[in-house]
Amino acid sequence: MSFKSVAIDGPAGAGKSTLARKLAEKLGFLYVDTGAIYRTVALAVLRAGVDPSDGGGVVPLLKDLEIRMGYGQDGVQRMYLAGEDVSEAIREHHISGVASQVSAMPEVRAFLLGFQRRQAQEQDVVMDGRDIGTVVLPEADVKIFLTAAPEARARRRLLELKQRGQEADYDTVLHDIRERDHQDEHRPIAPLKRAADAALLDTTQLNLEQSLAGLLALVKEKIGP
Ligand code: DC
Asked: Which regions of the chain does DSSP assign to beta strands (E)?
């Protein structure tokens, strides 16, 4: 039996995770947030006291890395590092840049590829990330590239951080978003880019409901109601 998959890629702050989670809920599919997996590797690197820009230090850590993904009773994805639930810790603002750094390393990507693919072999999934439609699930039934203007993404990210009680200011968040976009788009391996057969959804002028309706319409077009 083969399972259905929806691949959603796009830059940070386009609303991917919120929308992908809601879409999965509507479809009755499992939501897999692959950014959380890279964030968990980033946290492991920081905890080991290794410089995240140093591949020579990061790569040897991979073989002993004990990463697990699970789902809470509310259906929300949780990440475990050596048995510890790190789902909150990986959301700290400083983890974002480190995740982007380690995700540019080919060994890290190769290490996580099988892990991600297995999820889609075991159930229907909505998977979001940067290279899902291009590399992880090139045969996905539906591919969507979700984006928004950097300023709109910065405003949303700021709100999200404030809701979590984290201090941040607009200019810093916008600067970080631009820097991360650049880093993710220009890395040699699996850069952030729209797959040739991915539908584009720009959410700059859309609220959550409108974006979700847009996503559902694209999914229905491909795999039916
Ligand atoms: O979506 P996010 O902000 O949680 O992702 C954190 C970083 O992980 C992002 O800067 C790039 C990287 N990433 C990736 O390279 N490939 C993915 N499929 C998902 C995330």
From this structure: 5-9, 30-33, 67-71, 77-81, 84-85, 125-129, 142-147, 199-202
Tokens of 110: 């190769």
DSSP 33-73: EHHHHHHHHHHHHHHTT--TT-HHHHHHHHTT--EEEEE-T
Binned at pLDDT 50, 70 and 90, residue 1 comes out as low
Task: Using DSSP, state whether 211 is helix, strand or coil.
Answer: helix
How far apart CA 221 and CA 200 sit, in angstroms, is 14
Report the separation in Å between the CA atom of 214 and the middle of ligand 1, taken as the mean of its atom positions. 23
Residues 20, 2: Cα–Cα separation, whole Å? 21
How long, in residues, is the chain? 225
- pTM (whole model) above 0.85: yes
Closest ligand 1 atom to residue 38 Cα is 8
pLDDT per position as a tens digit, 205-218:
999 999 999 999 99
What is the residue with the minimal CA distance to atom 20 of ligand 1? Answer: 35
CA distance readout (Å), 36 to 41, 136, 198: 9, 15, 22
